[in-house]
Amino acid sequence: MQAIYLDHAATTPIHPDVLKVVVETMEEHFGNPSSVHSYGRKARQILDKARMTAAKSIGASDKDIIFTSGGTEADNLALIGVAEANKNKGNHIITTKIEHHATLHAAEKLEKEGYHVTYLDVQENGTIDIEQLKASLTDDTILVSVMMVNNETGVIQPIEAIGQLLEQHQAYFHTDAVQAYGLLPINVKELKVDLLTVSSHKINGPKGVGFLYVHPDVKMTAQQYGGEQERKRRPGTENVAGIAGFAKAIEIAAEKQQERMQQYKHYRTLFLEQLEKSAIDFSINGTESERVANIVNISFPGANVEQLLTNFDLSGIAASSGSACTAGSVEPSHVLTAMFSENNPCTTNSIRFSFGLANNEENVVTAAEKVGQIVQRLTK
Predict the structure, then answer these.
(1) What angle do CA 155, 158, 164 make, to 5 degrees?
(2) What is the DSSP letter of 156?
(3) Nearest residue to 241 (alpha-carbon basis) of 58, 8, 59, 14
(4) What positions does the domain Aminotransferase class V occupy (predicted)?
(5) Looking at residue 342, what is its pLDDT?
(6) Pick the CATH number of 16-251 from 1.10.10.10, 3.30.300.20, 1.20.140.10, 3.40.640.10
(7) What is the per-residue pLDDT for 322?
(8) What Rg, from alpha-carbon coordinates, does the chain have?
(9) pTM: predicted TM-score of the whole model, two decimal places
(10) Which of 336, 331, 357 is nearest to 346 (CA)?
């Protein structure tokens, strides 16, 4: 049985060219980039080049890039670091009910410490209401955090409109761009964002690496203690091999962006057409909004997540009930609960399929055929 991977929103297979860079760097350039000798200087050169690659990809300066251990650390640093450094200006933070748990749990921690957090609703199409955001802003608001693309539904949020709204407000604007990066064009100046989160393993790079873009005017408190790496904002010896691989993945993603978007759109169309041929009952969550091409979240009435995922896995199909952090959990999706309601069947019968490097036309169609057969059997 040929296994088919349809969970690229959780993580992606490493690109062969990226793997070569990681191994080569580990073998040949193992120096500490903080060391002054030749080994250290070579590692520093690799680090500096990678930082410029990362910065260029979002229209930023290399001085504004902080390498982290991934998206979670970057989100934590953005929320907690900014909140602690700016509490003299206010204690109000605005985010949404559909954020990744890296953001939501950081916000909950801040609430316990006395900060006031507003969690914006989303409409049934999965997007926030700009008017609600506008009404939620106060003189005490110091940070607004809204993800660019939702990791469960693929719905794109109106980041540019939010940036324009906040331009004359003291609040900093953070966006978690983990699911958008490499697929959508991103320019921090045009979007008017102050902080932006990216993760390597979502774009066929190594795990354990990410970056946080921080506008030079943003005041932020480091959340770790140690050396003076990353301009004193994130201490610890940098993961040079991982960062080198990340930079290679960024280059490939930039080069292949348009091609990948068209390819994933084609895969999604093939997948949905085959499901329709199976004559099963299904609907797409977030279908009334703009979405990225590689993610589709489908509700199967009469089925439930646990049954579906178990049977898919037994048939060699890897999919997810939502974010990677809750994969395997039978709890209702917090994203779909926010979109519909707590008791809506969609919250416990929906599956996320996400396309990427591990796919081709043949395995996408085969997967859809198997999904159709399984759903038919489970919903008889």
Answers:
(1) 165
(2) B
(3) 14
(4) 4-364
(5) 87
(6) 3.40.640.10
(7) 61
(8) 21
(9) 0.96
(10) 336
